[in-house]
Amino acid sequence: MIRNHIDIAILGGGLAGGLIALALTKSRPDLTLALIESGEHFGGNHVWSFFASDVDAAGAALLDPMVACRWQGYDVHFPRHSRRPATAYHSITSQRLDAHLREVLPAHALLTGTAVSKAGPTGLTLEDGSELEAGAVIDARGASSLPHMAGGWQKFLGQVLRLEAPHGLVRPIVMDARVDQLDGYRFVYCLPFSETEVFVEDTYYSDTPDLDRDLLRSRIADYAIAQGWSVAEASREETGVLPVVATGDFGAFWPADEPLARAGARAALFHPLTSYSLPMAVSTALAIAAMPDLSGPALAKASRDMARRLWQSATIYRMLARMLFGAAAPQDRWPILERFYRLPEPLIERFYAGRGTRADTLRILSGKPPVPVAAAIATLAGGGRPLASLERRA
Questions:
Q1: Bridge partners of 33?
Q2: How many other C-beta atoms are found inside a 10 Å radius of the C-beta of residue 214?
Q3: Closest CA to 275 of 95, 146, 385, 166
Q4: 308: burial class by Cβ within 10 Å (0-12, 13-18, 19+)?
Q5: Rounded Cα–Cα distance for residues 327 and 347 (Å)
Q6: Residue 183's pLDDT band (cuts 50, 70, 90)
Q7: Dihedral angle at the C-alpha atoms of 140, 349, 189, 271, nearest 10 degrees?
Q8: Quick one: which H or E segment has residue 317?
Q9: How far apart, in whole angstroms, are the C-alpha atoms of residue 220 and residue 78?
């Protein structure tokens, strides 16, 4: 049973909420916590991957118990260019996140199958009507709709395929864009979990959030056939529809006087172009765990300040998102990514980690753009193809 009064309630047991709970438990074992998740398991049904260069030593230590696979290097393939960067690549799974939370936190602090109907900075009401008082509340329940932002969507369906013979992959394929370019920039992502087990994800940078599961399943089957793989079964499946932010109004998204702390996608703490949230989830968890004042007002201010700093520093990534969605026709977006993967490897590492420098920006934008020059100029001036609203209506 959850206690009637605790120090911190974390709403949402996904990656962001789970990492905050783990970091706080390690740094402040005196605190009473509650991690409240509406689903039956923490972490949902996901694989999260990251480059070793995305996190520092403290971040790597936080993630290490949940890492399911590690590889030295990865591959990318485009119609006119392939590359094998040497950066180490790691994957963690929702199953390992769930198991590690149950190992580290006391049972009374972990609630699954529990929906929250109302949340405030110092308390919440559960769907069954029971109430809980807390010194602070952090809302990490995700955000499928961003009404104050525009851009496009990264959407995908992935399956773990068990094969009848070894697949032959020794490292991940982070992008294989040699496939038909349909519904925007399309690529296939592969993680070789064992000699005969591979996670294959069909991914799209699309103008719409629509996801045709049966169609994507058939395209994964076609990709497996093209690789010469004989599939015994698809043992697990996951889907996602993530926002790619090209422009927006941060002040409207998160007013300065809002009293409730946020984390994860609900705080827009993700890379605006890749929709990549793990590095930000790690840094947020470590920053919160190091705070001397964990009151509701202090956490609300600190979490908004973190999100605002990321928004301000991510201007270049939103600019590139505008180029991707505003300057290129959907089937002609792949040259932008192909050109990017011709740049120096340290720049690519900083890009994914969200630590790009001014020199990186100049390097990315230098030379002939991989889209029509007139369209590039128009897009950066505020014109170009119209951008989709990131508000999703049920």
A1: 8
A2: 8
A3: 146
A4: middle
A5: 23
A6: very high
A7: 30
A8: helix 315-322
A9: 18
What are the helix (H) ranges across 145-228? 213-226
Is 51 strand, coil or helix?
Answer: strand
State how far the Cα of 83 lies from the Cα of 167, in Å rounded to an integer.
20
**Alpha carbons 307 and 272: distance in angstroms, whole number:** 12
In angstroms, how far is CA 103 from the centroid of its own chain? 25
- CA-wise closest residue to 302 among 330, 260, 271: 260
Q: pTM higher than 0.85, yes or no?
A: yes
Query: How confident is the model over 355-388, as pLDDT tens digits?
Result: 988 899 888 877 766 666 566 655 665 667 788 8
Question: Which amino acid is located at 370 in the chain?
Answer: P
- CA distance linking residue 105 with residue 110, whole number of Å: 7
Secondary element (H or E) of residue 324: none
- Classify residue 92 by its DSSP letter: E
The token pair at 380 is 């950066």
Q: What is the DSSP letter of 164?
A: S
To which H or E segment does residue 27 belong?
helix 15-27
Contact 384, 322 (CB under 8 A): yes
Closest CA to 216 of 151, 153, 154, 155: 155
pLDDT tens column, 262-299: 999 999 999 999 999 999 999 999 999 999 999 999 99
> Apex CA 380: angle with CA 375 and CA 188, to 5°?
70
The count of residues in the chain is 394
Q: Kindly report the CATH number that applies to the domain delimited by 5-45+92-141+259-313.
A: 3.50.50.60
Q: E strands, the chain, where?
A: 5-11, 33-36, 47-51, 67-72, 75-78, 81-83, 88-93, 110-111, 116-120, 123-126, 131-139, 146-163, 173-176, 185-194, 197-206, 231-248, 261-262, 388-390
Dig out the tokens for 383 from the structure.
Answer: 């014109």
CA dist 126 → 102, 114, 129, 169, 204 (Å): 21, 7, 5, 47, 37
pLDDT value at position 392? 76
Taking every pair of C-alpha atoms in the chain, what is the biggest distance, in angstroms? 62
pLDDT at position 1 is 44
In the chain, which segments carry CATH 3.50.50.60? 5-45+92-141+259-313
